[in-house]
Design brief:
Elements: E1 20-22, H1 24-43, H2 46-71, E2 73-77, E3 80-84, E4 88-97, E5 103-109, E6 117-121, E7 125-133, E8 138-149, E9 156-171, E10 186-188, E11 191-193, E12 199-210, H3 222-228, E13 232-237, E14 243-248, H4 268-274, H5 286-304, E15 308-313, E16 316-321, H6 324-332, E17 354-359, E18 375-378, E19 389-394, E20 398-402, E21 407-409, E22 413-415
Parallel strand pairs: 3-9, 14-15, 14-17, 17-18, 18-19
Antiparallel strand pairs: 1-9, 2-4, 4-7, 5-6, 5-8, 8-9, 10-11, 12-13, 15-16, 19-20, 21-22
Helix pairs in contact: 1-2, 5-6
Length: 416
Amino acid sequence: MSAERDHGSPPKNRYPTGVPFPTGRGFTMIALSALFFIVGILGSNYLATAVGAAGLAFCTGSAIATWDLIRRVDVRRDLTIRGQVGSPIPFRVEVVAERGAKGAVIAKDQNFGVHPVLLGISGESTDATWLLRLTQRGYWNHFRTMLATSVPAGLFIAKKEVVTEADVVIGPQTYHVDIPEGMGSVTWSGEVRTTPPRTGVGIDFLNIREYRPGDRVRRIHWRASARHDELFVKEMEHEGRLELVVAVETLSPRLYWVTESSSKYPSLPELWVTTPALPTTGLGDVWGERALVVAASLSLAALERGHTVYLLSGSQVMRRVRSREEVMDYWARTNFGPEFPTVPKLGSSPKRASTILVSTPHTRPYFQALDESVFLVFTGAPEPVRNRSWYAEITDRLTVYPLHGRKAYGEGRLAG
Protein backbone atom coordinates (compact mmCIF):
# COMPACT_ATOMS: atom_id res chain seq x y z
CA MET A 1 0.00 0.00 0.00
CA SER A 2 1.56 3.28 -1.01
CA ALA A 3 1.14 6.47 0.91
CA GLU A 4 1.15 9.81 -0.83
CA ARG A 5 2.46 12.57 1.35
CA ASP A 6 2.25 16.35 1.38
CA HIS A 7 5.77 17.41 2.25
CA GLY A 8 4.90 20.94 3.28
CA SER A 9 1.77 21.08 5.37
CA PRO A 10 1.13 19.68 8.86
CA PRO A 11 -1.86 17.45 9.57
CA LYS A 12 -5.20 18.95 10.39
CA ASN A 13 -6.35 18.96 13.99
CA ARG A 14 -8.31 15.77 14.64
CA TYR A 15 -9.83 16.94 17.92
CA PRO A 16 -12.58 19.53 18.49
CA THR A 17 -10.57 22.18 20.30
CA GLY A 18 -11.28 22.05 24.02
CA VAL A 19 -14.71 20.42 23.84
CA PRO A 20 -15.20 18.54 27.17
CA PHE A 21 -16.35 14.93 27.06
CA PRO A 22 -17.64 13.04 30.12
CA THR A 23 -15.36 10.47 31.69
CA GLY A 24 -16.72 7.23 33.17
CA ARG A 25 -17.14 9.00 36.48
CA GLY A 26 -18.81 11.90 34.72
CA PHE A 27 -21.34 9.64 32.95
CA THR A 28 -22.20 8.05 36.29
CA MET A 29 -22.62 11.46 37.96
CA ILE A 30 -24.80 12.81 35.16
CA ALA A 31 -26.96 9.67 35.08
CA LEU A 32 -27.53 9.65 38.86
CA SER A 33 -28.26 13.38 38.98
CA ALA A 34 -30.72 13.10 36.10
CA LEU A 35 -32.37 10.10 37.76
CA PHE A 36 -32.79 11.96 41.06
CA PHE A 37 -34.13 15.00 39.24
CA ILE A 38 -36.68 13.04 37.16
CA VAL A 39 -37.83 10.93 40.13
CA GLY A 40 -38.18 14.06 42.24
CA ILE A 41 -40.25 15.82 39.60
CA LEU A 42 -42.51 12.81 38.98
CA GLY A 43 -42.95 12.05 42.70
CA SER A 44 -43.11 15.65 43.86
CA ASN A 45 -40.11 14.94 46.09
CA TYR A 46 -38.44 18.29 46.53
CA LEU A 47 -35.34 16.82 48.22
CA ALA A 48 -34.67 14.42 45.33
CA THR A 49 -35.33 17.22 42.86
CA ALA A 50 -32.89 19.49 44.68
CA VAL A 51 -30.21 16.79 44.86
CA GLY A 52 -30.63 16.04 41.16
CA ALA A 53 -30.53 19.72 40.20
CA ALA A 54 -27.46 20.32 42.34
CA GLY A 55 -25.72 17.33 40.75
CA LEU A 56 -26.50 18.53 37.21
CA ALA A 57 -25.36 22.04 38.08
CA PHE A 58 -22.09 20.66 39.48
CA CYS A 59 -21.53 18.64 36.30
CA THR A 60 -22.20 21.72 34.17
CA GLY A 61 -19.79 23.81 36.22
CA SER A 62 -17.13 21.10 36.04
CA ALA A 63 -17.47 20.93 32.23
CA ILE A 64 -17.15 24.72 31.97
CA ALA A 65 -14.08 24.76 34.24
CA THR A 66 -12.43 21.97 32.23
CA TRP A 67 -13.11 23.79 28.96
CA ASP A 68 -11.87 27.10 30.39
CA LEU A 69 -8.54 25.63 31.53
CA ILE A 70 -7.75 23.85 28.26
CA ARG A 71 -8.68 27.05 26.38
CA ARG A 72 -6.25 29.15 28.41
CA VAL A 73 -3.14 27.03 27.96
CA ASP A 74 -0.80 26.86 24.98
CA VAL A 75 2.48 25.20 24.02
CA ARG A 76 5.93 26.49 23.20
CA ARG A 77 8.60 24.23 21.73
CA ASP A 78 12.24 24.58 20.75
CA LEU A 79 11.95 25.49 17.07
CA THR A 80 15.37 24.20 15.97
CA ILE A 81 16.73 20.79 16.95
CA ARG A 82 19.67 18.95 15.43
CA GLY A 83 20.54 15.36 16.21
CA GLN A 84 21.41 11.92 14.95
CA VAL A 85 19.84 8.49 15.12
CA GLY A 86 21.10 6.63 18.17
CA SER A 87 22.29 9.73 20.04
CA PRO A 88 20.38 11.23 23.00
CA ILE A 89 18.49 14.38 22.06
CA PRO A 90 16.70 16.69 24.53
CA PHE A 91 13.09 17.60 23.69
CA ARG A 92 11.38 20.28 25.74
CA VAL A 93 7.70 21.14 26.04
CA GLU A 94 6.68 24.37 27.75
CA VAL A 95 3.01 24.86 28.68
CA VAL A 96 2.07 28.54 28.89
CA ALA A 97 -1.09 29.58 30.76
CA GLU A 98 -3.00 32.83 30.93
CA ARG A 99 -2.83 34.72 34.19
CA GLY A 100 -5.10 33.23 36.81
CA ALA A 101 -5.32 29.78 35.23
CA LYS A 102 -4.68 26.99 37.70
CA GLY A 103 -4.92 23.22 37.56
CA ALA A 104 -3.07 20.31 35.98
CA VAL A 105 -2.51 19.50 32.31
CA ILE A 106 -1.22 16.32 30.68
CA ALA A 107 1.17 17.10 27.81
CA LYS A 108 2.19 14.48 25.25
CA ASP A 109 4.51 14.87 22.29
CA GLN A 110 2.82 13.35 19.24
CA ASN A 111 5.84 13.33 16.92
CA PHE A 112 8.05 10.80 18.67
CA GLY A 113 5.77 8.76 20.90
CA VAL A 114 7.05 10.23 24.16
CA HIS A 115 5.34 9.19 27.39
CA PRO A 116 2.89 11.86 28.60
CA VAL A 117 3.80 14.06 31.56
CA LEU A 118 1.55 15.73 34.14
CA LEU A 119 2.29 19.44 34.55
CA GLY A 120 0.85 21.56 37.33
CA ILE A 121 -0.34 24.99 36.24
CA SER A 122 0.22 27.50 39.02
CA GLY A 123 2.06 30.31 37.27
CA GLU A 124 2.53 31.65 33.76
CA SER A 125 4.47 28.64 32.46
CA THR A 126 5.83 25.22 33.32
CA ASP A 127 7.93 22.86 31.25
CA ALA A 128 9.15 19.29 30.90
CA THR A 129 12.20 17.87 29.12
CA TRP A 130 12.66 14.38 27.66
CA LEU A 131 15.96 12.84 26.64
CA LEU A 132 15.23 10.67 23.62
CA ARG A 133 17.27 8.23 21.58
CA LEU A 134 15.59 8.36 18.18
CA THR A 135 15.49 5.47 15.73
CA GLN A 136 14.33 7.31 12.59
CA ARG A 137 16.22 9.89 10.58
CA GLY A 138 14.36 12.65 8.81
CA TYR A 139 13.23 16.25 8.83
CA TRP A 140 10.19 17.53 10.69
CA ASN A 141 8.70 20.94 9.86
CA HIS A 142 6.08 20.88 12.62
CA PHE A 143 5.54 19.71 16.18
CA ARG A 144 2.31 18.10 17.38
CA THR A 145 1.61 18.34 21.10
CA MET A 146 -1.49 16.94 22.79
CA LEU A 147 -2.82 18.75 25.86
CA ALA A 148 -5.51 17.17 28.03
CA THR A 149 -7.09 18.00 31.38
CA SER A 150 -9.90 16.68 33.57
CA VAL A 151 -9.66 19.40 36.22
CA PRO A 152 -11.38 20.11 38.56
CA ALA A 153 -13.21 16.91 39.50
CA GLY A 154 -12.30 14.38 36.85
CA LEU A 155 -15.86 14.33 35.48
CA PHE A 156 -14.93 15.69 32.05
CA ILE A 157 -11.84 15.54 29.88
CA ALA A 158 -10.91 18.13 27.27
CA LYS A 159 -8.18 17.66 24.67
CA LYS A 160 -6.41 20.11 22.43
CA GLU A 161 -3.77 19.31 19.83
CA VAL A 162 -1.37 22.16 19.22
CA VAL A 163 0.56 22.19 15.93
CA THR A 164 3.59 24.51 15.87
CA GLU A 165 6.28 25.17 13.29
CA ALA A 166 9.59 23.40 13.77
CA ASP A 167 12.94 22.74 12.14
CA VAL A 168 14.01 19.32 13.40
CA VAL A 169 16.80 17.58 11.50
CA ILE A 170 17.78 14.07 12.58
CA GLY A 171 20.63 12.57 10.57
CA PRO A 172 21.20 8.85 9.98
CA GLN A 173 23.27 6.69 12.26
CA THR A 174 26.95 6.61 11.40
CA TYR A 175 29.88 4.30 12.09
CA HIS A 176 33.57 5.00 12.25
CA VAL A 177 35.03 3.64 9.03
CA ASP A 178 38.23 4.14 7.08
CA ILE A 179 37.94 4.76 3.37
CA PRO A 180 39.32 1.51 1.89
CA GLU A 181 42.62 1.59 0.09
CA GLY A 182 41.95 2.07 -3.61
CA MET A 183 38.48 3.57 -3.25
CA GLY A 184 38.53 7.02 -4.74
CA SER A 185 41.65 6.35 -6.82
CA VAL A 186 41.90 7.33 -10.49
CA THR A 187 44.04 6.12 -13.37
CA TRP A 188 46.51 8.79 -14.52
CA SER A 189 48.95 8.09 -17.38
CA GLY A 190 48.62 4.35 -16.77
CA GLU A 191 49.28 4.69 -13.03
CA VAL A 192 46.62 4.09 -10.35
CA ARG A 193 46.71 7.00 -7.91
CA THR A 194 44.65 7.98 -4.90
CA THR A 195 44.18 11.49 -6.29
CA PRO A 196 44.59 13.01 -9.77
CA PRO A 197 47.76 15.05 -10.16
CA ARG A 198 47.17 18.79 -10.41
CA THR A 199 49.74 21.34 -11.39
CA GLY A 200 50.79 23.90 -8.79
CA VAL A 201 53.29 24.37 -6.02
CA GLY A 202 54.78 21.08 -4.86
CA ILE A 203 57.91 18.95 -4.70
CA ASP A 204 57.13 16.17 -7.20
CA PHE A 205 57.97 16.67 -10.88
CA LEU A 206 54.95 16.20 -13.14
CA ASN A 207 55.68 17.42 -16.66
CA ILE A 208 57.37 20.09 -18.79
CA ARG A 209 55.71 22.62 -21.04
CA GLU A 210 56.57 25.70 -23.11
CA TYR A 211 57.50 28.87 -21.25
CA ARG A 212 54.68 31.39 -20.77
CA PRO A 213 55.10 35.05 -19.86
CA GLY A 214 54.94 35.32 -16.08
CA ASP A 215 56.55 31.94 -15.31
CA ARG A 216 59.29 32.08 -12.69
CA VAL A 217 62.88 31.81 -13.88
CA ARG A 218 63.71 29.16 -11.25
CA ARG A 219 61.16 26.83 -12.87
CA ILE A 220 62.92 26.84 -16.27
CA HIS A 221 64.05 23.37 -17.36
CA TRP A 222 67.48 24.31 -18.77
CA ARG A 223 68.33 20.92 -20.35
CA ALA A 224 65.05 20.72 -22.27
CA SER A 225 65.36 24.38 -23.27
CA ALA A 226 68.89 23.82 -24.64
CA ARG A 227 67.80 20.67 -26.48
CA HIS A 228 64.87 22.37 -28.23
CA ASP A 229 66.42 25.81 -28.54
CA GLU A 230 63.44 27.43 -26.76
CA LEU A 231 62.40 27.90 -23.16
CA PHE A 232 60.59 25.12 -21.29
CA VAL A 233 59.43 25.12 -17.66
CA LYS A 234 58.82 22.36 -15.12
CA GLU A 235 55.35 21.62 -13.88
CA MET A 236 55.19 20.39 -10.30
CA GLU A 237 52.40 18.30 -8.83
CA HIS A 238 50.10 20.25 -6.52
CA GLU A 239 49.81 18.70 -3.09
CA GLY A 240 46.04 18.71 -3.22
CA ARG A 241 43.25 16.83 -1.51
CA LEU A 242 41.09 14.11 -2.93
CA GLU A 243 37.76 15.27 -4.33
CA LEU A 244 34.95 12.81 -3.62
CA VAL A 245 31.32 12.72 -4.64
CA VAL A 246 29.36 10.44 -2.31
CA ALA A 247 26.02 9.56 -3.90
CA VAL A 248 23.08 7.44 -2.74
CA GLU A 249 20.54 5.72 -4.95
CA THR A 250 17.18 7.21 -3.91
CA LEU A 251 15.08 5.42 -6.52
CA SER A 252 12.59 3.44 -4.45
CA PRO A 253 8.95 2.37 -4.38
CA ARG A 254 6.84 4.76 -2.33
CA LEU A 255 6.69 2.50 0.69
CA TYR A 256 7.35 3.19 4.34
CA TRP A 257 8.96 0.42 6.33
CA VAL A 258 9.45 -0.11 10.06
CA THR A 259 11.93 -3.02 10.02
CA GLU A 260 13.34 -5.37 7.44
CA SER A 261 10.62 -7.98 8.01
CA SER A 262 7.70 -5.65 8.64
CA SER A 263 4.82 -4.85 6.39
CA LYS A 264 4.47 -1.31 5.18
CA TYR A 265 2.84 1.45 7.13
CA PRO A 266 -0.91 2.04 6.74
CA SER A 267 -2.16 4.88 4.60
CA LEU A 268 -1.28 8.38 5.74
CA PRO A 269 -4.66 9.31 7.35
CA GLU A 270 -4.51 6.08 9.40
CA LEU A 271 -0.89 6.77 10.24
CA TRP A 272 -1.61 10.08 11.92
CA VAL A 273 -4.12 8.31 14.16
CA THR A 274 -2.17 5.17 15.03
CA THR A 275 1.54 6.08 15.12
CA PRO A 276 3.89 8.96 15.88
CA ALA A 277 4.33 11.48 13.09
CA LEU A 278 6.42 10.56 10.09
CA PRO A 279 9.11 13.04 9.10
CA THR A 280 8.42 15.51 6.33
CA THR A 281 10.92 13.68 4.14
CA GLY A 282 9.88 10.56 2.23
CA LEU A 283 11.39 7.49 3.86
CA GLY A 284 13.10 4.75 1.90
CA ASP A 285 12.78 1.01 2.26
CA VAL A 286 15.28 -0.90 4.37
CA TRP A 287 17.88 -0.88 1.57
CA GLY A 288 17.61 2.88 1.07
CA GLU A 289 17.91 3.70 4.76
CA ARG A 290 20.87 1.34 5.06
CA ALA A 291 22.53 3.02 2.07
CA LEU A 292 22.18 6.39 3.82
CA VAL A 293 24.01 5.00 6.86
CA VAL A 294 26.89 3.84 4.65
CA ALA A 295 27.01 7.11 2.67
CA ALA A 296 26.94 9.26 5.80
CA SER A 297 29.75 7.21 7.38
CA LEU A 298 31.93 7.46 4.24
CA SER A 299 31.22 11.19 3.95
CA LEU A 300 32.36 11.87 7.52
CA ALA A 301 35.45 9.66 7.06
CA ALA A 302 36.44 11.65 3.97
CA LEU A 303 35.94 14.96 5.79
CA GLU A 304 38.08 13.78 8.70
CA ARG A 305 40.90 13.00 6.27
CA GLY A 306 40.70 16.53 4.89
CA HIS A 307 39.23 15.64 1.49
CA THR A 308 36.86 17.81 -0.51
CA VAL A 309 33.44 16.14 -0.27
CA TYR A 310 30.31 16.57 -2.37
CA LEU A 311 27.02 14.83 -1.61
CA LEU A 312 24.42 13.81 -4.19
CA SER A 313 21.02 12.16 -4.17
CA GLY A 314 18.24 11.88 -6.69
CA SER A 315 16.01 14.21 -4.66
CA GLN A 316 18.54 17.00 -4.05
CA VAL A 317 21.11 19.00 -5.97
CA MET A 318 24.77 18.28 -5.47
CA ARG A 319 26.16 20.08 -2.43
CA ARG A 320 29.67 20.53 -1.12
CA VAL A 321 29.85 19.91 2.62
CA ARG A 322 32.45 21.16 5.06
CA SER A 323 31.24 19.95 8.45
CA ARG A 324 29.50 17.09 10.22
CA GLU A 325 26.39 19.23 10.66
CA GLU A 326 26.11 19.81 6.90
CA VAL A 327 26.47 16.07 6.22
CA MET A 328 23.70 15.22 8.70
CA ASP A 329 21.44 17.95 7.31
CA TYR A 330 21.81 16.77 3.72
CA TRP A 331 21.10 13.09 4.38
CA ALA A 332 18.29 13.87 6.85
CA ARG A 333 16.43 15.78 4.11
CA THR A 334 16.93 13.09 1.46
CA ASN A 335 13.71 11.82 -0.11
CA PHE A 336 13.12 8.39 -1.62
CA GLY A 337 10.59 7.64 -4.32
CA PRO A 338 10.07 6.38 -7.86
CA GLU A 339 10.74 9.87 -9.25
CA PHE A 340 14.20 10.21 -7.63
CA PRO A 341 16.76 8.10 -9.56
CA THR A 342 20.32 9.17 -8.76
CA VAL A 343 22.34 7.62 -11.62
CA PRO A 344 21.16 10.13 -14.29
CA LYS A 345 22.51 12.97 -12.11
CA LEU A 346 26.03 11.55 -11.77
CA GLY A 347 27.08 13.46 -14.88
CA SER A 348 27.01 16.69 -12.87
CA SER A 349 30.01 15.59 -10.77
CA PRO A 350 33.15 17.77 -10.92
CA LYS A 351 35.59 16.58 -13.59
CA ARG A 352 38.45 15.79 -11.22
CA ALA A 353 36.26 14.20 -8.55
CA SER A 354 35.98 10.50 -7.89
CA THR A 355 32.38 9.29 -7.52
CA ILE A 356 31.23 6.72 -4.96
CA LEU A 357 27.68 5.46 -5.49
CA VAL A 358 26.07 3.59 -2.60
CA SER A 359 23.59 1.44 -4.45
CA THR A 360 20.41 -0.44 -3.60
CA PRO A 361 18.67 -3.28 -5.45
CA HIS A 362 16.71 -0.57 -7.29
CA THR A 363 19.93 0.55 -9.04
CA ARG A 364 20.08 -2.59 -11.20
CA PRO A 365 18.20 -1.14 -14.22
CA TYR A 366 20.86 1.59 -14.40
CA PHE A 367 23.98 -0.61 -14.19
CA GLN A 368 24.55 -0.43 -17.95
CA ALA A 369 24.44 3.37 -17.83
CA LEU A 370 27.06 3.62 -15.08
CA ASP A 371 30.45 4.95 -16.07
CA GLU A 372 33.30 2.53 -15.37
CA SER A 373 35.02 5.18 -13.27
CA VAL A 374 32.23 5.11 -10.65
CA PHE A 375 33.05 3.24 -7.45
CA LEU A 376 30.02 1.09 -6.61
CA VAL A 377 29.22 0.16 -3.00
CA PHE A 378 26.59 -2.56 -2.52
CA THR A 379 24.47 -2.76 0.62
CA GLY A 380 22.73 -5.96 -0.44
CA ALA A 381 23.65 -9.00 -2.51
CA PRO A 382 25.54 -7.53 -5.50
CA GLU A 383 24.52 -8.71 -8.96
CA PRO A 384 26.39 -8.47 -11.17
CA VAL A 385 29.80 -7.79 -9.60
CA ARG A 386 31.82 -5.34 -11.70
CA ASN A 387 35.21 -3.71 -11.39
CA ARG A 388 35.53 -1.09 -8.67
CA SER A 389 32.86 -2.81 -6.61
CA TRP A 390 32.67 -2.91 -2.82
CA TYR A 391 30.33 -4.45 -0.28
CA ALA A 392 29.25 -2.68 2.92
CA GLU A 393 28.37 -4.98 5.82
CA ILE A 394 26.63 -3.53 8.88
CA THR A 395 26.60 -5.55 12.10
CA ASP A 396 27.73 -3.83 15.29
CA ARG A 397 30.13 -1.95 13.05
CA LEU A 398 30.49 -1.01 9.39
CA THR A 399 32.95 -2.92 7.23
CA VAL A 400 33.59 -2.30 3.54
CA TYR A 401 35.01 -5.20 1.51
CA PRO A 402 36.43 -5.10 -2.02
CA LEU A 403 34.59 -7.46 -4.35
CA HIS A 404 37.26 -7.85 -6.98
CA GLY A 405 37.39 -11.57 -7.62
CA ARG A 406 35.00 -12.39 -4.76
CA LYS A 407 31.41 -13.58 -4.70
CA ALA A 408 28.75 -12.31 -2.34
CA TYR A 409 25.53 -13.96 -1.31
CA GLY A 410 22.64 -13.35 1.06
CA GLU A 411 22.31 -10.27 3.21
CA GLY A 412 25.30 -8.96 5.10
CA ARG A 413 27.43 -12.06 4.41
CA LEU A 414 30.42 -12.62 2.17
CA ALA A 415 31.89 -15.81 0.83
CA GLY A 416 35.30 -15.81 -0.69
